[in-house]
Amino acid sequence: MTVGKYSIVSPSEGQPLPDSHKLVVRVSSSKGNNYHLGDQVDSGTFGFLATESGDYTTCFWANKHKPPVKMTIDFDWKSGVAAKDWSKIAKKGQIETMEIELKKLYDTVASIHEEMFYLRERYETIMAVIIAVNS
C-alpha cells in the first residue's frame, strides 16, 4: 500500500495561497500507468496498491505562469507499514494490551540473551579445563 499527500506552501506565511498557485500532479508507474492525476490543484492526496514492480514517480508541474512563479511543495510519501494509519486500526485498549505483550516478549529476549552469555562463559571454562587436562 502507498499513500501520499501534497500541498503548495504559501509564499507569505500566515497568508492564504494566491489563486494563481495551482499544479498538475501525476503519480505513475515505470510502465506508464497512471495512479493519480490532479489538475489545477493546490493540494491533494492519493493512495494505491502497487501491482507492478519497479519505481513509481510523482510529477508536479505548473502551467502558464507569467511571470514565472517559484513554488514550494510539501510532499509526504509513505509505503508499506508506514502507510497504515494505526490510530484508526487499533483502539487504546488494544494498544495497551499489545504494549504489555511486547514488554513480555522483550523480557523473554533479554532472558535468552543472558542465558547465551552464561552458556558461552561455561563453554570457555570447560574448553580451558579440557586443554589443561590434555596438555
TrEMBL record:
Topology in the lipid bilayer: Single-pass type I membrane protein
Subcellular location: Membrane
GO cellular component, one term: membrane
Keywords of the record: Coiled coil, Membrane, Signal, Transmembrane, Transmembrane helix
Domain GOLD per the UniProt entry, residue ranges: 1-104
Segments for region (Disordered): 1-20
Protein origin, superkingdom: Eukaryota
Family according to the record: Belongs to the EMP24/GP25L family.
Database matches in PANTHER family: TRANSMEMBRANE EMP24 DOMAIN-CONTAINING PROTEIN
UniProt name for this protein: GOLD domain-containing protein
Organism of origin: Gossypium lobatum
Lineage of the organism: Eukaryota, Viridiplantae, Streptophyta, Embryophyta, Tracheophyta
